[in-house]
């Protein structure tokens, strides 16, 4: 699959509750906004990039890519951002990543695309080791690291219109392939001020 067939979307539309309400995409790591870092990492992997955001739109627009607010009210979660991306994208595929994961793999989209093509799937999502509450690492689905056919927009709109919010439940409605990645650290999110401090120190 050619990367020109894929629009890359950085999801930055959350409410940042565990960050005390701060807009996570605009927090800086080593002098660079997290959203800018994600865009920089995603751009070589796709044909075009855009950003899903609901606050501080002018700050995000300054990053030089289209900024798409949710089409649904009340910021109902990452699926709303995905729907907005599907609605605006001019390509048959959309690849999404969260703004708060600064080190996701540089071959993420290529591997998701290859798996989707091989399995004739509608969606491909990443699976990678993640620590549990006891600190043990085990495989975990990372559903916002997702590649989806934009033709699914009507189904996703219907799911959200019925009150659906869980990404996994929506994935289960379609032919979805899970793609295993070995480096779990590449998928670690910056969810709290402590997480961000550790990244600065690392």
Automatic annotation (TrEMBL):
Q: Which coarse location class describes where this protein primarily resides? A: cytoplasm
Q: Name one GO cellular component term.
A: cytoplasm
Taxonomy, superkingdom: Bacteria
Keyword Cytoplasm listed? The answer is: yes
- What's its catalytic activity? Mo-molybdopterin + GTP + H(+) = Mo-molybdopterin guanine dinucleotide + diphosphate
**UniProt keywords, alphabetically:** Cytoplasm, GTP-binding, Magnesium, Metal-binding, Molybdenum cofactor biosynthesis, Nucleotide-binding, Nucleotidyltransferase, Transferase
Q: Which GO terms describe its molecular function?
A: GTP binding; metal ion binding; molybdenum cofactor guanylyltransferase activity
Residues annotated as binding GTP are 11-13, 24, 70, 100
The prosthetic group or cofactor this protein requires is: Mg(2+)
Which residues does the UniProt record annotate as the domain MobA-like NTP transferase?
8-174
- E.C. code: 2.7.7.77
Q: What's its top-level EC category? A: transferase
Q: Which Gene3D superfamilies match?
A: Spore Coat Polysaccharide Biosynthesis Protein SpsA, Chain A (3.90.550.10)
Is this entry keyworded Lipoprotein? no
Check the record and name the SUPFAM superfamilies matching this protein: Nucleotide-diphospho-sugar transferases
Localization, UniProt: Cytoplasm
Q: Where does Mg(2+) bind?
A: 100
Q: What does this protein do?
A: Transfers a GMP moiety from GTP to Mo-molybdopterin (Mo-MPT) cofactor (Moco or molybdenum cofactor) to form Mo-molybdopterin guanine dinucleotide (Mo-MGD) cofactor.
What family name appears in the similarity comment? Belongs to the MobA family.
Q: What is known of its domains?
A: The N-terminal domain determines nucleotide recognition and specific binding, while the C-terminal domain determines the specific binding to the target protein.
Q: How does it assemble?
A: Monomer.
Q: What is this protein called?
A: Molybdenum cofactor guanylyltransferase
